[in-house]
Amino acid sequence: MQTEPMLERLAWIIKMYGVISSDFYDRLSVERPSRWSLRQQYGTWKGAVEAAIKLLETQGTIIESPQKEESGSADAQVLKLTQQIAELSRHFQTSELCFTGTTHRFGMISDTHIGSLFCDKALLNYAYEVFAEEGIKTVLHAGDILDGMQMYKGHPFELEAQGSDAQVSLAVDEYPKQKGITTYFITGNHDRSFWKLSGTEVGSKISAQRPDMVHIGHQEADIKIGEDDAVATIRLAHPDGGTAYAISYKIQQYINALQSGTKPDILITGHYHKTEELYYRGVIAYQAGCIQSQTPFMRGKQLAAAMGFRILEVTVAPKRVVRVTSTFFPVRS
To answer: How many Cβ atoms sit within 10 Å of the Cβ of residue 47?
Structure first.
């Protein structure tokens, strides 16, 4: 993105949302993008902000300097940062998080479909109990956190909660909370149904009420891990389209369709309610499994549900992923 359009867009964000200076991020003891992370996404963050403020001043808009200390509780501060990060990601058309360190362990989960009568809440709670016992601090959710509305004929009769407000409230109240665990999630096609019906972005609504649940994009988001020249990319993806007879076929199609230079090192996908581990064209790919049991719609289409979740450990070195280990926790379904 060229400098001038970037500054104009950043100036608009500052004017609308009052984005604070980057040093405040570093004063919070939470797992959120650091100053290093912001530099990776937006260039020299401090300089860009100052230039955007000067641009606003030339247009006659006065921006007050941020106070040295933010008022309110730590939870309120984290909530404000979560909202600002979400706005930055959306308006810059990027969804990327960065975690320093060469070895990371992640919880991997997908397709919870909260709001569906077939969401296995006991399994979801069990997953987070395992994550806590295993010392997992970061969980990656590959989409369809909610079940959505009007996805197919008869769908309303499979719902515990009708409408976006009811399903968001259910997620806020019932999605597992474990001290020290942050869930980063993308939204999938079921979540997106609310946008298509009423323009409602449910991911940001959930994040606004649950600081431990961070919405990082729709359908795709990249997570950078490592530092200096030892950096790898994990991509969360929630593709569209129906499942295939061969479990790996859709994932192979996805990887084949990636343009040169855009392949991640590790791919984690949801949507298909399947689980597998595949190494294809240099990409280590996982289907994450699901938390929703087989619905009447799936049964009618002869679609099985591979219920379960994973723990992923990744070690990176310059120019390559050194080691990846994945542990799957299956549920008979």
So the answer is: 9
